[in-house]
Amino acid sequence: MTPVYRGYDQEGLDAQYERLVAPDSYAIFDRWRARSDASAAKRPCIVDIAYGPSEMEKLDVFPSADPDGPILIYIHGGYWIWKDKVDFRFVAEGVVDAGVNLVVINYALTPHVTMDEIIRQVRAAVAFTWKNAGGVIPGNRNRIFLAGHSAGGHLTAIAASTHWQSFDAALPPEIVAGGLAVSGLYDLEPIRLSYLNETVGLDEPMAWRGSPICQTKMEMPPLTLVCGGGESDEFKRQQRDYAATLERGGAIVPTLEIGDLHHFAVIETIAEPGSELNAALLKRMAV
Ligand SMILES: N[C@@H](CC(=O)c1ccccc1NC=O)C(=O)O
């Protein structure tokens, strides 16, 4: 065998970042969509607000009963290739009744755009939310939190490391109060070396620029990291290594590996009041 990354050969590395981790993956995706449709049908929802000029730069807002409550920006996963905000409206079930104003964002996908462009779009969504909080987006702009799963966990962490005044001189130094990343990718180098890169299209400098583990900043907003105990060794390794890197910088990083849940099971529990993941999220937002 020819080692490609950390002792894994190509097949071994690809297996660590497998597409469909559960035998019933497609049934799970159908259930997410059905729960999302039901969730949108039963509560107020403002859909497809443009946060930028391109087709995919749109977000949906689920207002809570507290227009001065926190704002949670949810960033969906799908290895930067698949999925859409409409698949993750079910997240509202876990947060809106607790007084959190939920924003679920879309972003363009690879190979149509580069990772650099996806990161720019997510940053633009966060900046738009800060500028419009208390206006078109209900909620308190001093309490903007980020959460995301998988590729969305990656985008949560990289957005948390943004130098906002370099991104947009009109912004203050910090506009994010904290974040929670579920099953995130914090190191893109193994992604660049895997089968995923045929579509994701990273080169070495872009993988480095886009890796949260390489891009921590001073005074990061506090992050909580969560994954399932049943995820692949690489997902668990990514979480451990990123937490250790942030902790070397002086941060306190609550870290959870939940039960034996797999990659798709863990995110579903975000919508269950009282679950470990839901409790960790509400705690991060102090609600
Ligand atoms: N591979 C799956 C999607 C996928 O990987 C995924 C879907 C939803 C949430 C997270 C995912 N994985 C990482 O971002 C598919 O083929 O649709």
Automatic annotation (TrEMBL):
A Pfam entry, by short name: BD-FAE
Q: Which GO molecular function annotations are given, in alphabetical order?
A: arylformamidase activity
Checking Gene3D superfamilies in the record gives: alpha/beta hydrolase (3.40.50.1820)
- Enzyme Commission number, as recorded: 3.5.1.9
Keywords of the record, alphabetical order, are: Hydrolase
The answer, when asked if Disulfide bond is one of the entry's keywords, is: no
Q: Can you tell me where the transmembrane regions are?
A: none
* Annotated SUPFAM superfamilies: alpha/beta-Hydrolases (SSF53474)
Q: Which InterPro entries match?
A: AB_hydrolase_fold (IPR029058), BD-FAE-like_dom (IPR049492), GDXG_lipolytic_enzyme (IPR050300)
Q: Where is the BD-FAE-like domain?
A: 67-169
Q: What is this protein's record name?
A: Arylformamidase
- The organism encoding this protein is Kaistia hirudinis
Supply the source organism's classification.
Bacteria, Pseudomonadati, Pseudomonadota, Alphaproteobacteria, Hyphomicrobiales
